[in-house]
């Protein structure tokens, strides 16, 4: 149970509880005609009562011993705009009767280990495969919601695992990840909890008692409320509160003093480097300017050529007169 000062700060939400299995899919066998599908429904009903008492809206994916496909369960949560989906299951380990404790799963393409992969194969055993529809826009919007839900699901899993272990004093098997079909296509924080082993001699007996189921219900409610409070707090993890800065605002920002000084210095150096040294400029001017001797020689050459031409003409005239 959460402390009183936290209860007054709790954010109420819409919770979908999913009792695992049902109908012709009984789940794990606990002996003496007891099956997982009955246990998960009992725990879900106890958790629903506790959450309603705390002011939350709670909906179950099934309320009787009926079969519900895995895809229909996730769609049900999406259609009811749930803030949280918790799928409740019980574990078994026929080859290891010593296995016990609670573990919590969130969706991931890869399983944490071989045991998590085996569990996913068992829980994904559903002959009905559901396809997604809604067109391109619907798919894009759903993908955007799911990308955020994936982050939230990991946080919910951590909160739930801690709360369940505190409420029951059961062995913690940790938070794990696996490609669980019931968690696919969900648009909210969604997890699957394994509340204990029906193959453990002591644990399976506790799981069927009303007192232990009440502890599990309190743990489930605490985990959900801790998550909802974290998600509503202004002090969220950085990954959930990354501010979006527009390009315009970014351009208006002035750089830090040191960076501004460095940029100014760099600009000055660039400008100064673009200027040619005085010696180079003078040399270039000297190169472009014609030497006085050359400038003076050109008219002299023209004058000499003209004089020669005149002299030659005079000589021709003289020779002509002489021939007469």
What is the overall silhouette? elongated
CATH class (first level) name of the largest domain = Alpha Beta
**Count of the domains:** 2
Rg over CA atoms, rounded to whole Å, is 43 Å
Q: Give the strand tally.
A: 8
Largest pleated sheet: 6 strands, mixed
Question: What would you say this structure looks like, in words?
Answer:
The protein has 324 residues and is α/β, with parallel strands linked by helices. It folds into two domains: 10-240, 3-Layer(aba) Sandwich (Aminopeptidase), CATH 3.40.630.40; 247-323, no CATH class. It is built from eleven helices and eight strands. The strands form two sheets. A six-stranded mixed β-sheet has the order 4-1-5-8-6-7, with helices on both faces. A two-stranded antiparallel ribbon has the order 2-3. A hairpin with a 2-residue loop joins strand 2 (29-31) and strand 3 (34-35). It starts with a helix and ends with a helix. The relative contact order is 0.14.
Keywords for this entry:
324 residues; alpha/beta; 2 domains; six-stranded mixed β-sheet; Aminopeptidase; two-stranded antiparallel sheet
Quick rundown:
The chain is of the alpha/beta class. It is 53% helix and 14% strand.
Indicate the topology.
Layout: H1 4-7, E1 14-19, E2 29-31, E3 34-35, H2 36-53, E4 57-60, H3 70-79, E5 84-91, E6 102-107, H4 114-123, H5 135-168, E7 172-178, E8 189-197, H6 201-207, H7 210-232, H8 247-252, H9 257-274, H10 278-288, H11 292-323
Parallel strand pairs: 1-4, 1-5, 5-8, 6-7
Antiparallel strand pairs: 2-3, 6-8
